[in-house]
Every structure is written in structure tokens, then in C-alpha cells.
């Protein structure tokens, strides 16, 4: 098991390893005060893992109740959030009790927000079961639900009490859901120099635990430097400005990670043409995306993507902060005129 200490407005451990679900109770016991656990999961994850999680929690003398909701991003709503809060109240949960959010990023984001709001905040333990949630959503304290006006528009920063990631859970992921998690892993390799790029090259002859741990370390370092997302943390948006535009053009009918992969590729191709990075950076990115079955472009036109990107919530006025790759292991933030997105799309799509 790898233990990564996160030191943000709250200090906590992110534990990563194989077989951790069966140890959940003993891992969580020392860090929470109360005896009552609400286990939140969507119906798919409940069918696969709720029993094992409950047994482990009960064997550590927790009283466990399960709250299951229908799977999918469309359920990450204020209405669902309220129904979770009402259930917590019906069950008489107190401020020393704990919510365990077990599942993908939807459960993590919504469970994290419910825990942050209930009685002004109770402990939340994140148990990510998708690769995306393990390397991205579960660490860092961003919680949210969606509004009709946009994704993640209603939320707070609230760090979990602990993160427990059992990498064995990835074995049951649908192939596309697994693949899109790899897009965020590849993204992580651009954030900082370190062992991740080598691990990805050596995959599959390396331990999944080591890959996830390295991604979590990278995210931890960025989050600790900029918990509230005013600077450094924006680097995590590499590939996301164009990725979000692709998602919007696809009417959110595509996988986020697939869109991010194409977004990283498009901006990197443009950066090679403008001399921000060398051709070898693009070639390495391409190799990694091929290896993990991720797309390198998209079907939409520059104009359609540009119009969609204009609606990106990260835009303030006519200026935008772009994340430009310098090489694997380094990217830079560039505050620029929004019109530069058009140039990037023209160069990156190259048609
Ligand atoms: N808070 C953050 O910093 C942050 C970062 C990135 C993404 N997110 C959020 O994360 C969400 C996307 O995360 P996601 O892709 O994990 O979505 P998700 O929670 O919808 O999970 C994807 C699907 O996989 C299923 N699933 C989960 N674990 C499984 C397993 N082990 N085996 C089989 N099926 C399993 C789920 O039931 C679901 O159908 C988005 O809402 C996004 O906004 C948050
Ligand atoms: Zn993402």
C-alpha cells in the first residue's frame, strides 16, 4: 500500500493499493470520531462493491447504512443532493458521523458536497472506483453538482478525511470508462517531471498502484500549492479548454476523457507549429494516446469548436488562461486573448 500525505486546509492520507476494500473499516477507523457511516454509491457500484465495503466497515464496529442512487452524470443534480441530505437527516446522522463516497467522480463530487453541507460539514471518505476518480476527482477537495447552466456550477472546496483507492476495482470498469481515465493519467505526466512518464512507457509491466500513486502525488503537489484554483492548479486543465468544447459540440454524448485526449493532441500539435514544444513531445503524446486507445482528433470544425469554447466557464472577459505543453513533464500557463484559441484550433486541427 502507498500512503500519500496531502497537506491542504485539512491534512489527510490518500491510500492506494490492491485489496484495500476489504481493509476499509480498519483504515478508516482511526481517523473518524463517530460510529455511523452512510455509504453512498450508484447502483452499478453498489452491485459490485457495496457488500464488501459494508462487511469491512462493520467488522471495524461501524453501523453502516447504504444509500444507492441511479448511475450517471445526469443524476449529479441539486435535487439528488437534497435527497441525499434529507436521507442523512432521516437517519439522524450527527456531526461526528461519516459519509463514505464509493464510486466514480459523480459519487465523489456529490457525496463530497453532501458531507460538506450536512450540519455545516461532516467527514467524508472518498473511495474512488474509476481510474479517473482515483487519479483526479477523489483528491483535491473540489466538490459539486451540476446546474442547468453548466457542469459543477454548485459546489464548495472541501477536502476529504481520507482517500482509499483499491486498484483492483478497475478490473470491472467498462473499457471506455477505463480508457478515459488514462487520458487524465497522460495529462498528469505533463504536469511535472518525475517517474510517471517512464511508468507509462513501461506499462503494462508496472504496478497499477505505482501509476495511480504517482498521479496522486502530482495532483497533491499542485493542490497544496494552489488549493483554491487561482494559479498553478489551472495546469490540470491541460487539454480541457478544447476538450470541453468537443464535449459541448457532442452535446455531452461523448466521454470526457476522450475529449480531453483529443484536446491535448490538438493543442500540442499547434504548439509544435508555433515552437512552444518540439515535435518529439507530440510524438510521445501520440504514442501514449495510441497505447491507451485514446483519440487524437475530433470530427468537429474549427468554427464549431471555437463557438463552443467561448462558452467555457474558465474564460474571464476576452482573456483566457491556456495550458501549453513544453515537453512531457512541463507545461506553462499563458494568459492570452481569446482569439488565440482560434489560431490553436486552426493549427491543431491542421485541415
Ligand atoms: N472533483 C474533481 O476534482 C473532479 C475531477 C475530475 C472529474 N470530476 C468529476 O468526475 C465525474 C466523472 O467521473 P467518472 O468518470 O468516474 O464518472 P462516474 O462516477 O459516472 O463513473 C462512470 C461509470 O462507471 C461506473 N463505475 C464506477 N466504478 C466502477 C467499477 N469499478 N466497475 C464498473 N463500473 C464502475 C459508474 O457506475 C458509472 O456508470 C464528472 O462528474 C466530473 O465532473 C471531478
Ligand atoms: Zn478532466
Describe the structure.
The protein is an alpha/beta fold. The chain contains 13 helices and eleven strands. The chain has helices at 24-28, 43-59, 78-90, 105-117, 131-137, 175-191, 196-202, 208-225, 240-249, 256-273, 279-291, 302-310, 339-349; strands spanning 2-7, 11-17, 36-42, 63-69, 98-103, 123-128, 142-147, 150-157, 162-166, 319-327, 330-337. Strands 1-2-9-6-5-3-4 form a seven-stranded mixed β-sheet, sandwiched between helices. The chain has a two-stranded antiparallel ribbon with strand order 7-8. A two-stranded antiparallel ribbon has the order 10-11. β1 and β2 form a beta hairpin. α5 (131-137) packs parallel to α6 (175-191), α5 (131-137) runs parallel beside α8 and α12 packs antiparallel against α13 (339-349). The longest helix has 18 residues, at 208-225. The radius of gyration is 20 Å and the shape is globular. The termini are far apart. The mean pLDDT is 96. Residues 42, 44-45, 48, 71-73, 76, 103-107, 109, 129-130, 132-133, 136-137, 140, 142, 151-152, 169, 172-173, 177 line the site of nicotinamide-adenine-dinucleotide.
> What is the overall pLDDT average?
96
Termini distance? 48 Å
- Strand proportion, as a percent range, falls in 15-25%
Helix segment count?
A: 13
Dominant shape = globular
Radius of gyration: 20 Å
The side-by-side strand order for the widest beta sheet comes to: 1-2-9-6-5-3-4
Helix content estimate: 40-55%
Low-confidence stretches: none
The tally of strands reads 11
Ions and ligands: nicotinamide-adenine-dinucleotide, zinc ion
Amino acid at each position: 500500500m502507498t500512503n500519500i500525505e496531502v497537506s491542504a486546509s485539512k491534512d489527510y492520507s490518500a491510500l492506494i493499493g490492491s485489496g484495500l476494500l476489504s481493509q476499509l473499516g480498519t483504515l478508516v477507523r482511526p481517523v473518524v470520531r463517530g460510529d455511523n457511516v452512510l455509504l453512498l454509491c450508484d447502483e452499478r457500484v453498489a452491485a459490485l462493491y457495496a457488500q464488501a465495503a459494508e462487511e469491512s466497515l462493520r467488522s471495524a464496529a461501524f453501523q453502516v447504512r447504504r444509500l444507492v442512487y441511479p448511475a450517471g452524470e445526469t443524476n449529479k443534480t441539486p435535487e439528488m443532493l437534497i435527497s441525499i441530505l434529507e436521507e442523512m437527516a432521516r437517519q439522524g446522522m450527527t456531526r461526528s458521523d461519516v459519509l463514505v463516497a464509493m464510486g466514480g467522480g459523480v459519487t465523489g463530487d456529490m457525496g463530497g458536497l453532501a458531507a460538506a453541507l450536512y450540519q455545516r460539514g461532516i467527514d467524508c471518505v472518498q473511495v474512488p472506483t474509476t481510474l479517473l476518480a482515483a487519479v483526479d476527482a477523489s483528491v483535491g477537495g473540489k466538490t459539486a453538482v451540476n446546474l442547468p447552466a453548466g457542469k459543477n456550477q454548485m459546489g464548495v472546496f472541501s477536502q476529504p478525511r481520507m482517500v482509499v483507492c483499491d486498484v483492483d476495482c478497475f478490473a470491472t470498469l467498462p473499457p471506455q470508462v477505463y480508457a478515459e481515465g488514462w487520458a487524465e493519467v497522460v495529462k498528469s505526466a505533463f504536469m511535472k517531471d518525475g517517474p510517471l512518464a517512464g511508468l507509462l512507457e513501461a506499462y503494462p509491466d508496472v504496478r497499477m498502484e505505482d501509476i495511480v500513486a504517482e498521479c496522486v502525488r502530482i495532483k497533491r503537489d499542485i493542490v497544496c500549492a494552489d488549493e483554491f484554483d487561482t494559479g498553478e492548479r489551472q495546469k490540470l486543465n491541460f487539454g480541457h479548454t478544447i476538450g470541453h468544447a468537443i464535449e459541448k459540440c457532442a452535446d455531452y454524448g461523448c466521454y470526457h476523457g476522450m475529449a480531453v485526449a483529443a484536446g491535448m493532441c490538438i493543442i500540442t500539435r499547434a504548439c509544435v507549429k508555433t515552437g512552444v514544444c518540439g515535435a518529439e513531445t507530440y510524438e510521445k503524446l501520440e504514442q501514449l494516446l495510441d497505447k491507451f486507445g485514446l483519440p487524437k482528433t475530433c470530427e468537429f470544425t474549427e468554427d464549431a469548436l471555437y463557438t463552443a469554447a467561448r462558452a467555457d466557464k474558465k474564460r474571464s472577459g476576452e482573456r483566457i488562461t491556456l495550458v501549453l505543453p513544453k515537453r512531457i513533464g512541463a507545461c506553462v500557463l499563458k494568459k492570452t486573448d481569446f482569439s488565440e484559441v482560434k489560431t490553436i484550433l486552426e493549427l491543431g486541427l491542421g485541415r
